[in-house]
Amino acid sequence: MNQYYYNLPPKPQSFAPPTQKKLLKDQYEVLQIELGSGTYGKVKLALNHTIKKKFAIKIISKSYMKQIFATQHILNELNYLQACKHKNIVEYIEHFEDRDNIYIVLEYCKHGTLNDLIRKRNKLTEEEAFHYFYQIAQAILYLHEKDIIHRDIKADNILLQNSDVKVCDFNWSTFLPNGGKAKPCICGTTEYMPPEVIRKEIHDKGVDIWALGVLLYYMLHGELLFRAKQKEELYEKICSKQPIKFNENLSKECLLLLQQMLAHQKRINIQQVLNSNWVIKMLRCKNNSSVLRLTPIKCRSSAQESTRFSVVSDSTYFSSSKFTAKSQDIEPSEKQGNISQGTQDQNPKKVKSSALDQNNPAFRVEKKYCS
């Protein structure tokens, strides 16, 4: 019996309809790459399809934010990000929200964090450390001139974009006009906290100077100045006045600056940091082939009432915008005047941190950045 085989037509292939990409605000595609995570949410890489550019999006859960009483922290961060325009502060793009989350769009810094760099390199030379230190100090100067204290300066909060550094994370920031003092609270990251914060005393802009000193020590030594397994032991080390062991190869100018920044009393201010012999020496070595522009900076600290000349980078950019937010967490040394006087904004935003009225523990943001 003959068998016949027929070439049957192939079965039609079924194609699943392409899944539509969910775009936030009809333009941001959130990619799977996670840039960092913290107490309030995650930071993810996003692509803006309208302008074909990548950004970092901080995604904050509304339900969790209310659960840990962090609403005011987020309002703080938005307020300060919008008020600050400086080349060494991460750029705020916009923010929006939906039913579940708040989204903060920031510039994308593709070269990771300063902490990543230090861990990779083990430790930095004075010249390398100065490159990052000077830019961070310029950002702090800008903030302090606006009467803003960051209160969480640390290697994880310094982003790298090419050769520039970008200070980020303003959750713990506060506004202290007219030499005011912040009410006692535990704020920031423990290893970088100064003794006055650990002891729950009133504090001022000096908290950023202490943290900057700890950060400089970390860059030069490859390890944090204060380390312990238990928080109580760490508190004790920070508050004790035990002599600090420094690298023997440090220059005397750098050593002196570290001691002045890590002083328990009469800590120098940011103007004095930028007027220090180490900073001037390093700038002159770096720019010995170019003309230096000397700008007078008034030292307002009682420890050194004087005016010196400091070398200021021509690339430093200061915004002319005025910060008009009024903080509720201030213990003024004397009766405060109208802080918005002389500004055009007649209805400044009011900012207060819930952390100042609660025993919220300090949190650490662990970041992981991809290049």
UniProtKB/TrEMBL annotation:
Query: What PANTHER family does its record include?
Result: SERINE/THREONINE-PROTEIN KINASE IAL-RELATED
Record flagged with keyword Kinase: yes
**InterPro entries of this UniProt entry?**
Aur-like, Kinase-like_dom_sf, Prot_kinase_dom, Protein_kinase_ATP_BS, Ser/Thr_kinase_AS
Region: Disordered, residue numbers: 325-371
Which SMART domains is this protein grouped with?
S_TKc (SM00220)
State the family named in the UniProt similarity comment for this chain: Belongs to the protein kinase superfamily.
- A single GO molecular function term of this UniProt record: ATP binding
UniProt lists compositionally biased (Polar residues) regions at 335-346
Pfam families named among the record's database cross-references: Pkinase (PF00069)
Q: Where is this cross-link: Glycyl lysine isopeptide (Lys-Gly) (interchain with G-Cter in SUMO2)?
A: 154
- Where, by residue number, is the active site? 152 (proton acceptor)
What UniProt keywords are attached to this protein's entry?
Answer: ATP-binding, Kinase, Nucleotide-binding, Serine/threonine-protein kinase, Transferase
Keyword Transmembrane helix (UniProt)? no
Instruction: State the protein's name.
Output: Protein kinase domain-containing protein
Q: Give residue ranges for domain Protein kinase.
A: 29-279
Which residues take part in binding ATP?
58, 169
* GO CC entries: nucleus
